[in-house]
Input
Amino acid sequence: AAVGVAYELYPALLAGVEKFRHSVYVVYAGGDDAVLAGDLAALEYVGRVVEYGEAWGFKTAVGVKAEHFDYPVYYAFTDAEEHLEKAKDIDRKRSLVVYSAYPSVLYIEAGLLKERLRHIWGLLAGGEVGDVEGRSRLDRLARFTYLKLLEIYRALELCNTDRVEARRRAAKALVEYVYFVNRRGQRDDLRWIEELTGMDLKPENLHRTFAAALACGNYHRLGEALSAALVVLNLFHLASRSAEG
Output
């Protein structure tokens, strides 16, 4: 009965909310399993369902495939199913969302994903970042930051097999990041990126933020923070493109 309320009744009621009515399409639902399609609002929908499930004591694994609208649905389904299984492998005691970034596995806690999505919508709709040019400049910084953080994340994955190469790659990515931020005059936009990622990315503080990557030691917490930041930056880019029409 609890499963039915958490994963059948509540999702059906939530789907009637105006915010999700035209954004979420239920492909299949039964028991505690569901397959959804939709725009980025579908991720917030899933986040709310997961939170409701947690109130009943359930943990939920979620697999996400973000693709162009004409991507074959069968491939999207199989990819999302694969990510779902990876979420279970990572930690069954937490509600996790796995987001594709082959060959790395990116994941984020479902509740945090919901919060960051709301932050993204507010940032794009509120006008804090300025006009179209300001949003474009911020998106450019977000995309570059994503690339450099991904390089650091992949460097961490090397720490167990090649510490020297891992540390070299992390240092190289940080140098390139500092050069971009300082030379392109985007330090003023950096605060928005820090709010989105929840990380201190000021050039003068990078030696502390990424100490674990530069030393290849005690890097599990940094890996989780990087993974979540990468998911959010990717979604911010997709939301920015959507906002532009």
Summary: The chain is about 65% helix and 10% strand. Residues 26 and 179 are 45 Å apart (CA to CA). The chain has a mean pLDDT of 89.
